[in-house]
Amino acid sequence: MNVQHLLCSAVVCLLLFGCTPAETQNSAVITPDAVTKVAETPAEPKAAPCQLKLGFESWEPYQYVGLEQQASGLDIEIVQAVAGRMNCTLVLQHGTWQDLLGQFRQGQLDVLLGASKTPAREEFALFSEPYRAEQFQLFVRKDDVDKYNFDSVAQMVAAKHKVGLISDYYYGEQITALYSDDQMRPQFVESTMSEQNIAVLLDDQVDAVLEDSFVGAAIIRRKGLEQQVQPHSIKLEETPIYVMFSKSTVQPEQVSSFNQALQQLKDSGDYQQLLSKYQS
Q: What's the pTM?
């Protein structure tokens, strides 16, 4: 064996030695099976952020702009408490009911509060479980109380007295039937908000107005109208009130989550505390 052959053998050995992986305690061998398992393990899905655009109107004590321009009221506090349990953020927008309902139908708002459930609204909205009840009653000028010895709104408008309403509010089947009657409809005068409804009463444009009993009392107290306006004995039937969700932007599963959180709020006792706060 010559020197050249020995050198070549040494080079071959070095090359072979260099191609052999070093065996150390920190080395790890990844088998094909392990690679497959890593690739098949799905990443944990991230929860989609929950954000709802909520429209509210000036309807104290349920919804209104309070101190420091913050949304306030019973309805606002209830839905905020429920949204907190859902880990959901609310983006609030203030307006008149008529404008808010138009935006809601166009899918620009996700949620409206203080809604009555009607077949017409069920075409474009989903509804929560009822979260409170409401009752409308007549309010009249204090000096005219003894003039209106009627037992119902139907009797009052049949006697050619005018009654103020809010546009696009639902007052129940009785008022809907009267308003749908071509002979009775001229006896109803529409306003865009409750304060305007009371204003047309004070201006003698109507003889009475229909308002939620708590809303009417709040306006009288806030405006100092105790000597000018007072409630009449005529009251409409008490009806359940719902949160209304846009069918075009909110999934039924979200409504179910809202209902579950609402029930939790009621079961906790916090719900009753909110009611007591505003009805005391």
A: 0.78
